[in-house]
Amino acid sequence: MLGQMFAYPKQDLVAGIVVFLVALPLCLGIAVASGVPPVSGLVAGIVGGLVVPFLSRSSLSVSGPAAGLAAIVLVEVEAIGLPAFLTAVILAGLMQVAFGVLKTGVYSTLVPSSVIKGMLAAIGATIVLKQVPTALGVKTLSEIATYVHPGSAVIAVVSLVVLYAWRASPLQRVYWLPPALVVVALATGLSELFGAFAPALALEPKHLVSVPTGGLFSLASALPRPTLGALPEVSTWVVAATIAIVASLETLLSVQAVDRLDPLHRRSPPDTELVAQGLGNIVSGLLGGLPITSVIVRSGANVAAGGRERFAAVVHGVLLFVAVVGLAPLLNHIPLAVLAAVLIQIGLTLCRVSLWQEQYRLGFDQFAPFAITVAAILYEDLLVGVTIGIVVGIGFVLRHTARGTVAVREEGGKWLFHLRRDGTFVAKAALQSAFDRVPDSGHAILDASGEYMDHDMKELVAAFQVEARRRNIDFSVLGLDLKGVTGGGAH
């Protein structure tokens, strides 16, 4: 398997360089959005490139810190502190390994698509709300009413204009030139110009990236560390479960999407991927890095650049490591405002208006779980919101199933009831409603031929048999064995 990783060295070397150019600003930006030191995002990217590919069987997937987890990380780091959070990342990794060993990967397909889209939309909205203050050079939304740093604001606006104009630009055809990297370079140049020629727009050190300089040993001493003291705390385990579930879901969805882009039409085993991501998160947490997932942005860049195997992800990890160790002084000139702009664009893409319009056109059964998931996540948190969305989605499925199970037809005073599909307890209300339509001294036939009917439904039929005799109703049942079934449980 490891030999296969190096089957396409030339293609993967080029693709790995492109992925590195995409990942570098994202690692920094996601760390800033998560409220942790920028180096923690870079460490997570390095682990995603130098650990996960040797364990994964996903040929084109590239792992690293994900924008979708930034909102969770920010809230939880503020709640329990960074050392305890890193402990939770390690525990989350252990949980993911258990998910993979227990072969739970297939169950990701059971989450309704409306809930998944609602989760992504809510994550996008949260990212935008959290990054607007950074883009304007302040810490909170409330500060914007009284102060905006002009230099940060100019950089953020220019960056967003370039990012959104990129698709109409001829530069879009240059596959190895990521727009995020271009705006970072442009913003860094603007920042230097402001400092030299426009003091009123000059950025302060707090408005710039801060990565430890001085080489590998300086970096190692500056990294945050997990704490064993957080293990007995319930809050640590709750955070770990949240990260494990959300990171696993995001990974599996990303891997599925990348597999559809694979020109060689390979399929990634989901349970192996969960184990690989889990071990990656254990290492990332131990080293002071953010939680990692398979990331569709980097994976998509890998495919677009001609990547063929996991070696591309390794190349990207090596280059991130070189950047952290050798380019830290240069990274420290990058304005936070431009990283915020990159994330704002990602957030607006996730919660775009067209997504809401699409869900609305699909009907109330799709729009309601979607909207409720978004509202619940924004009001509570991501795990609670997704859970509520799943429950609501299941409720709509059950309602649809119940409504369509029993077909009712009345012909010449005779009521005909036919099961269109297997009859389970969820259809009891529909069947009872059908029975209630039969008048006293009437005629009714229930045809259950070829369909399964569970015990709850059989009890309801048996109860109506008793009621039919009392009301002088001629009631016949076809294709259903009611031997040993009494009607008492139906009431």
Task: Give an account of the 3D structure.
This protein is mostly helical and 491 residues long. It has 2 domains: 2-351, no CATH class; 405-490, 2-Layer Sandwich (Transcription Regulator spoIIAA), CATH 3.30.750.24. Helix content is 62%, strand content 6%. The chain contains 20 helices and 6 strands. The protein has a 4-stranded mixed sheet. Strands 1-2 form a two-stranded antiparallel sheet. Strand 3 (406-411) and strand 4 form a beta hairpin. The longest helix has 28 residues, at 234-261. The protein is elongated. The model has no long low-confidence stretch (mean pLDDT 89).
Summary, kept brief:
By secondary structure, the chain is mainly α. Helices cover 62% and strands 6% of the residues.
Contiguous uncertain segments of 5+ residues: none
Tell me how many strands there are.
Answer: 6
| N-to-C order of helices and strands | HHHEHHHHHHHHEHHHHHHHEEHEHE
Dominant shape: elongated
Distance between the termini: 60 Å
What is the tally of helical segments? Answer: 20
Could you describe the largest sheet, including whether it forms a barrel? 4 strands, mixed
